[in-house]
Amino acid sequence: MVIPALNAESTIGDTLSGLATQTAIARDEWELIVVDGGSTDRTCDIVGKDDRVTLLVEKRRGPGVARDTGLRHAKGEIICHLDADAMPTRRWLASLLAPFSDPAVVLVGGKSLSLPPRTPAQRYMASSARIDGEDYSRRPIFPFVPSRNMAVRREAALAIGGWTAECITGEDVDFCHRIRKAFPSEIVYQPEAVLFHHDRETAAELARQAWSYGEGTAHLYIRYAEETKWRAVDALHVAGQVAGRAAKALTLAVGKRLRVADEENAEHAYHHWLWSWSFWRGFYSYRRTGRYR
Asked: Where does a domain end: 197, 223, 247?
């Protein structure tokens, strides 16, 4: 099991506690590797208190290289991935591993849910269902398993060269695409492998996350230019989509002030526009510069 971590002192303790209470599989039957990406807080101190955890340090940027470092250090046949802000349910590990009883299964994704939201940004993410992998695993172009809740055969991961260091975000899309090209098979979605996640708390954090996802998406369009094209009609569609969401957010904001619009709907519309605006700004920033911010 591999967890990338960066300044995760507020959440990594809960993640480790959740893993310590896994049922159906004894603790001595699986290894846990935390790969720290250069934290400046107490992340390493917290992880270091558990002598059953292997702590590695990776100086290069991005969760992909951290996962790759963990992959190459791991000894198990199946590598499970979760993030340092996750809270696994007690049967998460057993459920995520169960489909691998079929030797044809290479890649499995679990069900990811938001922890109870406390802020407007968290309420938006919880209601938008952006973090779960079911829809992503079934989409026609670049189906993938979000790396926040994933398991893969180690042999297959090593056979494709592991995780790509160049992908700072979107690394899971790239990884799954290469896995499926090398080992043609269906992605297995396992709804019983449930993880809860801490979503970004503020609008600024949400915007930064959306921007980074946009950068990663643009990188993938360039990386796989022969398989997918970015056309003028796509740009027009995006412009219309963002403008429509901006208009709706503004209309509902005015309506809320006049007490003719529901506050919850206005809040959601604003964050929906913010996510879209930030995502596409990140997308075009990367297309223009070829660099992650």
From this structure: 197
